[in-house]
Every structure is written in structure tokens, then in C-alpha cells.
Amino acid sequence: MTSQTPDSSAARIRRLDVRDPDFFAQLDALLAFEAQTDEAVGRAVDEILRAVRTTGDAAVLDYTRRFDGLTVTHMAELELPKSALAEAFAALPAEQKDALVRAAERIETFHERQKLEGWVIEEADGTRLGQKVTPLDRVGLYVPGGRAAYPSSVLMNAIPAKVAGVGELIMTVPTPRGEKNPLVLAAAHLTGVDRVFTLGGAQAVAALAYGTQTIPQVDKIVGPGNAYVAEAKRRVFGVVGIDMVAGPSEVLILSDGSGDPAWVAMDLFAQAEHDELAQSILVSTQADFLDAVAEAIERLLPTMPRREVIAASLAHRGALIRVDDLEQAVAIANRIAPEHLELALEDPEPWADKIRHAGAIFLGHWSVEAIGDYCAGPNHVLPTMRSARFSSPLGVYDFQKRTSLVAVSRAGAQKLAPIAATLAQGEGLMAHARSAQMRILP
Ligand SMILES: NC(=O)c1ccc[n+]([C@@H]2O[C@H](COP(=O)([O-])OP(=O)(O)OC[C@H]3O[C@@H](n4cnc5c(N)ncnc54)[C@H](O)[C@@H]3O)[C@@H](O)[C@H]2O)c1
Ligand SMILES: N[C@H](CO)Cc1c[nH]c[nH+]1
Ligand SMILES: [Zn+2]
């Protein structure tokens, strides 16, 4: 794959055809993306994790001075008071405040339905078995700094945590040279984040994972970030839980030729503008519709603010694919297992039933991913890089854990202890066998 940035006025998006004998090889080459661990990043992260684990606050302050250009000497300077969050929210223009509130309400309503409840079953002999559900005590939410910070991601991470009943939510966000993102702080206020520290990178992940004199250790770290953050999350996994290490964002659009080509072109752009490695693919049964989308891309791209990024992304990882029928389109969708799947179809429901692997499915021409990214209600933190084959959107269940409950009755023990003892003997574990047998009444 080339890394050249194409001319911003000409998007060189590739055209593929399922009838081409090399089609699947070309498709697989397009999909091939592995988050590679840069050795230099790995070494830097190792050093940062070690320093924070051994010296705590001193290392956090040192790295924050070094990487974010802050002249801080005390940890208190890195914590934003709750009043600063409330002020950021109060100072928002009414339209933004209203949008944030309405999005948060919809996200909360949707996530309420995901809450797992405990249960107990009772057997005839009085034995009770069950599952107790407990929210995590304390969670760390990493929010990237600078332009890459998405206030919508604060909502998408914090709301399910709060719905789950997480005891304490600690947010870290770097503020390079002291620049704060007021929408991020406002979103933290709105979602009830408990504490906010202005630090970032691997040192933030380390501080959350190990705890420092000032920053309390958390049980799980969620949220995206750059290569240092991703690598640090990978390395602290086990000490704490992590949500996932997300890859570049992806959209796959299936089209039967109905709808407006300009809408589809803009949906591809919406993915491509995230970054140059984002993946935007359109599959259609209609060659003339693909031509019309290609024309719309050429026409609309020069009007877009981030056209260099969009053009580079479409050139690197974009494609317009012709298929013979929608069955083939669905097979391609299941092979790609995309983060986002738009069914730009006249009658999407029967085709949605055939999709087995996708982070989120958007049905019909009005169900655009951009609405899902902000305010439809479902989470926008979704599995990427084919991981929708085995994982799910971020949800309330990611902030809850399950504990088994076993209450064997006296009568139940007479039935179960002999079984346990026999199996224990088969494993050669005699203390297990004796322990069970002691419960058998003479
Ligand atoms: N997947 C998603 O949903 C999603 C959403 C938003 C952002 N992102 C990603 O988040 C990232 C944001 O990146 P960012 O850099 O602007 O913010 P960031 O918060 O991820 O990283 C900033 C921190 O990186 C650390 N850092 C920078 N240079 C360093 C160096 N040489 N050595 C050690 N540490 C260093 C610093 O500590 C700095 O505070 C982007 O990669 C973007 O793609 C992903
Ligand atoms: N499409 C991104 C990953 O699902 C989420 C996002 C945030 N802001 C805009 N889009
Ligand atoms: Zn998006």
C-alpha cells in the first residue's frame, strides 16, 4: 500500500469487481492492517511504566513537564476542580449544551437496557445457585488531548460506567501547553466524572494502573489514545482490565443502487476524515451507482475542510466494489466484519438478518453512521479489525462483573459430594475427595 498523499482535488479510490479472478486477494490486501508495535515506542513506554510504578507522582510530574510543556511542580496543579468542569458546561453556547444533554439522555436510555441483573435458582433439595453482579469499584477513562479528543467519546465511555454503578470514575486528559478542551470538560461534568487529571500518554495509563501518591489505582482503563497510550494499555493489562486496543475506524456500505450517491460519498468521507488509515468501502450491485458515487467523490472532495486526510484515507484503504447480487455483498460484509455497516438498501431488514459479524448495523438510507457516532443511543466504541467476529460494542456489561453463588443444602450435599469425590479421585486429588466425602452423612 502506498503512503503517498494524493492530490487533494483527486481522490484515487480503487475500483474492484467480484468477477475479477484476483478479487479476494485484492480485498484481503486492502483489509490487511495490523497494529504494529513500534520498538522505540515499546522501549519508551516500558521506561515510563517503570518510572511511574517506582516513583509515582514525581515521574508523572516529570513526564508531564517534558511531553506536555506544563510548568507544574505539585500534583494539585494537575487536578481540575469540579467547579472548573461545571463552569465549562455553563459557558457552552446554548445549542452545544442542548445537543450534549440530548445526546447524553439518549445514550443513557439505551444503555439502561443493557444492565445485567443477578439471579438465583433453587433446586428441589434446597440447593441454591446463582450469579451476583457487581459494578467495578473504580474506572479510569483516558481522553486523548488536542484535536483528537472527542467529547462524544466521553459520553460513550462515562455513561455506561455510570449506568453500571461504577463507584468512582477518574478521567485523564492531556492539556498540551495548558490548552484545555471545554467540550471535553463539559461532557465530564454532564456525565458525573468524579475526578479529572490533566495528564496524558503512557504516564497517565501507568498512574491509573499502578496508582500514585495522588492518583488512585483503578480496576479498568477505557478510552482511546495514540501509540504510547495503546502500548501502555496493552502492557498494564492483567494489573488492570482494559476495554480494547482499537484500530482505525471502518465503514462498509452495502448498496442496491437506491438512494442518493452524494449521501453515500459523504458517508465514506465521514469515515475517511477520522484519519489516513480509516477504512471506507462501498459494495454495490449497480455499476452505474458506483460510477455516480465516484463522480460525487470527485465533485465534493474539494469542498471538504480535511480533504487531504480524506483523499489519503480513500487512496490507502478505500474501495468501490461491484458485486453480482446482495448475497455476495453480505458474504463480503461477513468476511470483513466491519466496525460500522450501513445497509443503504430499499428494504434492509431481511439483509440485516443475514449479517453475522459487524460492530453496528445501520438500516436504510436515513440511518447514517454520523447519527450513531453522536446521539442515536448505542455506543460508538465498537470492535475494529475483524474483532466483531468475537467481540461487542462497549457497554454497561464492560463495567460489571459476575460472581458465582453456591449454597448447597444438607440434602444437596448428599447428592453432589459423591460425584465430586469420584471426579477428584480420578484426578488424583485426594484432599478434594476427602473434603467432599466429609459432607456425606453416615
Ligand atoms: N479509536 C478512536 O475511537 C479514537 C478516538 C479519538 C482519538 N483516537 C486516537 O487518539 C490519538 C490522539 O493522539 P494525540 O497524540 O493527539 O493525543 P494522546 O492523548 O493520545 O497522546 C498525547 C500524549 O502522548 C504522549 N507523547 C507524545 N509524544 C511522546 C513521546 N515522544 N514519548 C512518549 N510519550 C509521548 C504525551 O504524554 C502526550 O501527553 C490519535 O492516535 C487518534 O487516532 C482514537
Ligand atoms: N466514528 C468514531 C468511531 O466509532 C466515533 C466518533 C466520534 N466522533 C465522531 N465519530
Ligand atoms: Zn466517526
From TrEMBL:
<feature type="active site" description="Proton acceptor">
    <location>
        <position position="339"/>
    </location>
</feature>
<feature type="binding site">
    <location>
        <position position="203"/>
    </location>
    <ligand>
        <name>NAD(+)</name>
    </ligand>
</feature>
<keyword id="KW-0560">Oxidoreductase</keyword>
<feature type="binding site">
    <location>
        <position position="271"/>
    </location>
    <ligand>
        <name>Zn(2+)</name>
    </ligand>
</feature>
<comment type="similarity">
    <text>Belongs to the histidinol dehydrogenase family.</text>
</comment>
<feature type="binding site">
    <location>
        <position position="432"/>
    </location>
    <ligand>
        <name>Zn(2+)</name>
    </ligand>
</feature>
<dbReference type="InterPro" id="IPR022695">
    <property type="entry name" value="Histidinol_DH_monofunct"/>
</dbReference>
<feature type="binding site">
    <location>
        <position position="271"/>
    </location>
    <ligand>
        <name>substrate</name>
    </ligand>
</feature>
<dbReference type="GO" id="GO:0004399">
    <property type="term" value="F:histidinol dehydrogenase activity"/>
</dbReference>
<feature type="binding site">
    <location>
        <position position="373"/>
    </location>
    <ligand>
        <name>Zn(2+)</name>
    </ligand>
</feature>
<dbReference type="InterPro" id="IPR012131">
    <property type="entry name" value="Hstdl_DH"/>
</dbReference>
<feature type="binding site">
    <location>
        <position position="142"/>
    </location>
    <ligand>
        <name>NAD(+)</name>
    </ligand>
</feature>
<feature type="binding site">
    <location>
        <position position="249"/>
    </location>
    <ligand>
        <name>substrate</name>
    </ligand>
</feature>
<dbReference type="GO" id="GO:0051287">
    <property type="term" value="F:NAD binding"/>
</dbReference>
<keyword id="KW-0862">Zinc</keyword>
<dbReference type="InterPro" id="IPR001692">
    <property type="entry name" value="Histidinol_DH_CS"/>
</dbReference>
<feature type="binding site">
    <location>
        <position position="427"/>
    </location>
    <ligand>
        <name>substrate</name>
    </ligand>
</feature>
<comment type="pathway">
    <text>Amino-acid biosynthesis; L-histidine biosynthesis; L-histidine from 5-phospho-alpha-D-ribose 1-diphosphate: step 9/9.</text>
</comment>
<dbReference type="Pfam" id="PF00815">
    <property type="entry name" value="Histidinol_dh"/>
</dbReference>
<feature type="binding site">
    <location>
        <position position="373"/>
    </location>
    <ligand>
        <name>substrate</name>
    </ligand>
</feature>
<dbReference type="GO" id="GO:0008270">
    <property type="term" value="F:zinc ion binding"/>
</dbReference>
<keyword id="KW-0368">Histidine biosynthesis</keyword>
<keyword id="KW-0028">Amino-acid biosynthesis</keyword>
<dbReference type="GO" id="GO:0000105">
    <property type="term" value="P:L-histidine biosynthetic process"/>
</dbReference>
<comment type="function">
    <text>Catalyzes the sequential NAD-dependent oxidations of L-histidinol to L-histidinaldehyde and then to L-histidine.</text>
</comment>
<feature type="binding site">
    <location>
        <position position="226"/>
    </location>
    <ligand>
        <name>NAD(+)</name>
    </ligand>
</feature>
<feature type="binding site">
    <location>
        <position position="340"/>
    </location>
    <ligand>
        <name>substrate</name>
    </ligand>
</feature>
<feature type="binding site">
    <location>
        <position position="274"/>
    </location>
    <ligand>
        <name>Zn(2+)</name>
    </ligand>
</feature>
<dbReference type="GO" id="GO:0005829">
    <property type="term" value="C:cytosol"/>
</dbReference>
<feature type="binding site">
    <location>
        <position position="274"/>
    </location>
    <ligand>
        <name>substrate</name>
    </ligand>
</feature>
<feature type="active site" description="Proton acceptor">
    <location>
        <position position="340"/>
    </location>
</feature>
<protein>
    <recommendedName>
        <fullName>Histidinol dehydrogenase</fullName>
        <ecNumber>1.1.1.23</ecNumber>
    </recommendedName>
</protein>
<keyword id="KW-0520">NAD</keyword>
<feature type="binding site">
    <location>
        <position position="432"/>
    </location>
    <ligand>
        <name>substrate</name>
    </ligand>
</feature>
<keyword id="KW-0479">Metal-binding</keyword>
<dbReference type="InterPro" id="IPR016161">
    <property type="entry name" value="Ald_DH/histidinol_DH"/>
</dbReference>
